[in-house]
Amino acid sequence: MDAAKSTSKSESFVVALGNGHGSDDCQALIEEVSRKYNVPLDISLVDEAGASVWSVSKGAAQEFPNEAPSSIGAVSIGRRIQDPMNELVKIPPRSLGVGMYQHDLSEKVLEEKLQDAVIDAVAFVGVDVNTASLEILRNVPGLKGKLPDAIIASRPFYSRECLKKVKGLGPKTFENCAGFIHIGNKPDEELDSTRVHPESYILARWLLGELKCNSICTLTQAMIPEKTSEKRIALVDKAARLHNVSRERIENTIDLMMEYRSGKDPRLVLSESKVGVIKRDGSFECNAFPRNLVSDLRAFEKACPLRNIKGTIRNVTDFGIFIDFGGGR
After folding, report:
1. What local confidence, expressed as pLDDT, does residue 105 receive?
2. DSSP tag of 275
3. What is the pLDDT of residue 297?
4. What are the CA-CA distances from residue 328 to residues 175, 228, 238, 242, 321 (Å)?
5. Parallel, antiparallel or unpaired: strands 181-182 and 127-128
6. Phi and psi (nearest 5°) for 137?
């Protein structure tokens, strides 16, 4: 094992393991090798849906012209740990698996709905216009036709305003896409690093002033009044009156500025919760299926009932729903 020769006691490795057939046996084998060679390993089970489809695609052949499809598929699985969205947008939505009855739907309607879901995901997370792949840019709302290619050819950008110089990107397109893209590396305008839309910059600067903050880079949670406090209500009311905008827009602007300062990925904010807790009735309430229960049936029975485990719906049938909760099969 090469890793065993090169690693030190302070080093560890992450192994991306596809969640397909035989993944439990593979995980057991990797753990055995890890113990044998005393190599710390963090095994991450990754949804491998669509990896084999992309491995034989034109895009994959262009990126890895000298690699076998099996090796390309392994790269795709590994990349899903680093940046899942950037990798998954390359996969045709129907190949991600949405149930055995997906083919009973109109192909056109299914494709449209699935593509809309991909665009919504990209819009929610946002993208760095200087580093985003072509596949990501093609799914940014407002960027159609040859605009993604033109943007890549015009890099680097030092502000959102520079996007207006891209051929074919007019004022309306800029208005539609500006809130979903940002400038990641020290832009000329600090708010360009956030998900705050340019049309809310005046509001954002006013809010920073009211909070006695000279820069968004020095904004802290302690500076912002609690949402239900009188100070917060007075601040939002004053902003709505002076700037003639809705309370929702003001609250959203505050949230986006704090999101930037926290450095948290917006996807993680949605998923944060307690990992597990023993309830008074003896049941186990958790966010993820406990690994120690996967291979120990007696421990699994003792822990039941398990509640509030997050899973992924794999199939919808007339008689029920199949949910993958990360446990054994």
Report:
1. 72
2. S
3. 66
4. 48, 44, 55, 58, 17
5. parallel
6. -60, -30
Q: How far apart are CA 72 and CA 51, in angstroms?
A: 8
Q: Give yes or no: residues 294 and 317 share one domain.
A: yes
User: Which helix (H) or strand (E) is 277 found in, with range?
Assistant: strand 276-278
- Write out residues in the chain with pLDDT < 50, as ranges: 1, 270-286, 329
Number of domains present in the structure of the chain:
3
250: Cα within 13 Å, side-chain hemisphere: 22
If asked whether residues 253 and 282 sit together in one domain, one would say: no
Residues 290 and 260 in one domain: no
Measured between alpha carbons, how far is 106 from 85 in angstroms, rounded to an integer?
26
d(CA 320, CA 293) in angstroms, rounded, equals: 24
Q: What is the pLDDT of residue 231?
A: 95
| Residue-wise pLDDT tens digits, 118-155 | 888 888 888 999 989 888 999 999 998 999 999 999 99
Which residues make beta-bridge pairs with 323?
A: 313
**pLDDT given at position 324:** 73
- CA-closest candidate to residue 313, choices 100, 45, 23, 88: 100
| Residue 109, Ramachandran bin (φ over 0: left; ψ between -120 and 50: alpha; else beta) | alpha
Instruction: Supply the range of the domain harboring residue 311.
Output: 276-324
DSSP letter at 15 equals E
